[in-house]
Specification:
CATH architecture of the largest domain: Up-down Bundle
Strand content: under 5%
Number of helices: 7
Largest sheet: 2 strands, antiparallel
Helix content: 55-70%
Strand order of the largest sheet: 1-2
Number of strands: 2
Shape: elongated
Low-confidence stretches: 1-20, 36-48
CATH class of the largest domain: Mainly Alpha
Radius of gyration: 23 Å
Length: 229
């Protein structure tokens, strides 16, 4: 009965059923004397290929992670420096990283519009599915909002340098708009901290507690030795 339920789950979730893999999985477990694992763990192991993000989506995701890990310490260092040449250089780097994050977020949304995210396992609690969708879209919104508000803050009639390579169009000085953008940028900063923390916490929960292989959806395929294929 458990196998039938699992088989139906696989077919219903991804429309893919590889009976040979299921038999091989069970045979391997019997040979190795492994203890039965939760059904959702076996489900993930056999159907991860069907539920994996595209390589382009994976690359854009990890590029976003890298950029966020870069821009946060740059911002902290920049704010700790006194006004002067060093702070100005860090400001150029911070703004440039923000513009890059904006561009990558736009690319991610464009790609996702034609390549929808794979569905979560159907045994994922409904409230968890809702929270996952909400936090993802809020994070997308902040990845767009933060560079925009940062750009509006920089409006002083002078062009904005992109890593010293070229200049972005200058914005006319508007103190009222700049003040609003500054407040939104600060609020967005704490929003990013919160959503990134929730995202990391959810990943740890899936990897260490639920052990459903959900993280594998966002990494390239690997063979049994762990090498990429």
């Amino acid at each position: 009965m458990a196998t039938k339920t699992y088989t139906d789950h696989v077919a219903g979730e991804h429309g893919v059923l590889i009976e040979a893999k299921l038999m091989a999985w069970n045979a391997k477990n019997r040979r190795e004397g492994q203890q039965p694992r939760p059904d959702h763990c076996r489900l993930s192991a056999l159907t991860i290929e069907a539920g994996r993000y595209t390589l382009a989506a994976q690359a854009l995701h990890w590029l976003t992670v890298f950029l966020i890990l870069m821009i946060l310490p740059v911002a902290w260092v920049m704010m700790s420096l006194p006004e002067g040449p060093e702070q100005s250089r860090m400001l150029v780097v911070h703004r440039s990283l923000g513009v890059t994050i904006f561009a990558v977020a736009v690319l991610r949304l464009a790609w996702r519009s034609t390549h929808p995210a794979p569905p979560l396992p159907s045994d994922t609690p409904r409230v968890m599915q809702w929270i996952s969708q909400l936090t993802h879209w809020l994070l997308y919104a902040l990845l767009l909002l933060m560079p925009i508000t940062g750009y509006l803050q920089s409006g002083d009639g002078r062009p904005v340098s992109y890593f010293g390579l070229f200049d972005l169009p200058a914005l006319p000085k508007d103190k009222a708009l700049g003040d609003v953008a500054k407040v939104l940028h600060l609020l967005g900063q704490w929003g990013v901290y919160t959503l990134v923390g929730l995202h990391v916490g959810a990943t740890v929960w899936h990897v260490a507690i639920r052990r459903d292989g959900l993280l594998d959806r966002m990494i390239p395929p690997q063979d049994q030795s762990g090498a990429l294929r």
